[in-house]
Amino acid sequence: MDQLTNVLTAISHPSRRAIIRQLSHGPARFLDVADQFDTALNAVTKHLKLLERAGLIEREKRGREVMISLRAEPLREVAGWVHEYERFWNERLDEFEHHFKARKAKKEKKK
Q: What is the 3 state secondary structure string of the chain?
């Protein structure tokens, strides 16, 4: 899979987006991340592995703790991909507005 696909897959699940949201406030211990879910620790571990594979988080061992940090850079690729379609719709709306104004001017000219 390419990087964009890995990131889109990782952010497609609400639990993983919740983890990203939590980590956007700063690094957290694994148990602090897991505390927000009513699922088994194995499920949280699987979510973290997917986020790590997408390059969205990194783990650092500090003594006996494993700290998890957000790496937001891969989200820029998603933002760029979405932005391409935003430009597409803006161009379509500009064409529609131009057509509408031309039609309105034509009607007023007939009066």
A: CCHHHHHHHHHCCHHHHHHHHHHCCCCEEHHHHHCCCCCCHHHHHHHHHHHHHCCCEEEEEECCEEEEEECCHHHHHHHHHHHHHHHHHHHHHHHHHHHHHHHHHHHHHHC
Closest among 79, 59, 77 to 67, alpha carbons compared: 59
Give whole-number Cα distances, 27 to 5, 51, 79, 103, in Å.
25, 14, 23, 56
| pLDDT, tens digit only, all 111 positions of the chain | 799 999 999 999 999 999 999 999 999 999 999 999 998 999 999 999 999 999 999 999 989 999 999 999 999 999 999 998 888 889 999 999 999 999 999 988 887
Q: How far apart are CA 56 and CA 36, in angstroms?
A: 19
Q: What is the pTM of this model?
A: 0.77
